[in-house]
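Quiz preparation item.
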């Protein structure tokens, strides 16, 4: 079946390569396309709204056209192209590697750990203690499970299911799924670059990202609970989540804190009180392993779901 093969292709590329080379990474190209929006505008919210509509749609159409073009030669070539696009739209292994590296450095070179944290979390690392740096790395791993993996995988699966429901032939259904994954990745990229309170142009991208990531964040939390073999962590985490400014990121972070019995915090912003202490190096690394297992479950769920609805005959 073609759709499960596409997901497995993306997973294999993630295991083998983690990320495309930076110079050839389409997400880097996307970032360069978004950068001109990041300046003062007379009507910033209008500009942001237009960007939030146009940039993800352009990315989705470009990927869908690529898959359809490949499909003119072979359905399997279209599946390979869709798998490559899904690989580019997803990201987990490199982020987990960065998190492990940052956590390890907190025991040997705190300044280096603070420096490497900048690649993971958008916060001032200068005043953070070793425990707070580890907390930030663990939080980033949990949040990126939802944003960087579950969301584009879910969009791909949804596109394939919609294509099947509409009785589309294999290649258009693959194009719809791959285009959906690219659309989600572009939405998340816009939010990560523009979605700050200090940037009025980012209001629409941030609100769109909140809506798009609502379900993936909760699926990510479920996967973390399953990976930790602690379904009750979902219940234990619920009381803390209202204190997290984001309507979504608190779910995977909070469930991870509950599952491992540690406190995760962003000083002055929120605290996820899974325990009395910030995570030790050992527990931090164990938490990252839980996120890695949850990522494997996400791929497996995507394969099983596309196969269950018939894949693409």
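Solution:
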């Amino acid at each position: 079946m073609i759709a499960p093969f596409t997901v497995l292709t993306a997973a294999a590329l993630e295991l083998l390569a983690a990320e495309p080379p930076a110079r050839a990474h389409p997400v880097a190209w996307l970032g360069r396309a978004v950068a001109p929006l990041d300046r003062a505008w007379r009507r910033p919210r209008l500009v942001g709204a237009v960007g939030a509509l146009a940039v993800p749609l352009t990315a989705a159409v470009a990927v869908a056209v690529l898959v359809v073009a490949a499909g003119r030669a072979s359905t399997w070539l279209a599946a390979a192209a869709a798998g490559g696009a899904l690989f580019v739209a997803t990201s987990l292994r490199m982020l987990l590697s960065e998190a492990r590296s940052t956590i390890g450095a907190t025991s040997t070179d705190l300044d280096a750990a603070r420096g490497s944290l900048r690649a993971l979390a958008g916060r001032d690392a200068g005043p953070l203690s070793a425990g707070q740096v580890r907390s930030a790395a663990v939080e980033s791993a949990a949040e990126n499970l939802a944003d960087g993996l579950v969301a584009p995988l879910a969009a791909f699966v949804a596109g394939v299911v919609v294509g099947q429901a509409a009785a589309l032939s294999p290649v258009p259904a693959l194009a719809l799924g791959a285009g959906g994954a690219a659309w989600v990745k572009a939405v998340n990229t816009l939010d990560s670059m523009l979605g700050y309170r200090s940037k009025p142009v980012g209001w629409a991208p941030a609100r769109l990202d909140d809506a798009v990531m609502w379900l993936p964040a909760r699926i990510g939390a479920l996967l973390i609970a399953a990976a930790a073999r602690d379904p009750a962590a979902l219940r234990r985490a619920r009381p803390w989540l209202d204190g997290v400014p984001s309507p979504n990121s608190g779910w995977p972070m909070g469930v991870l804190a509950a599952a491992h019995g540690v406190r995760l915090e962003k000083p002055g912003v929120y605290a996820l009180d899974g325990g009395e202490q910030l995570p030790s190096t050992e527990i931090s690394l164990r938490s990252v392993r839980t996120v890695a297992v949850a990522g494997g479950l996400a791929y497996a769920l995507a394969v099983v779901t596309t196969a269950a609805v018939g894949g693409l005959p």
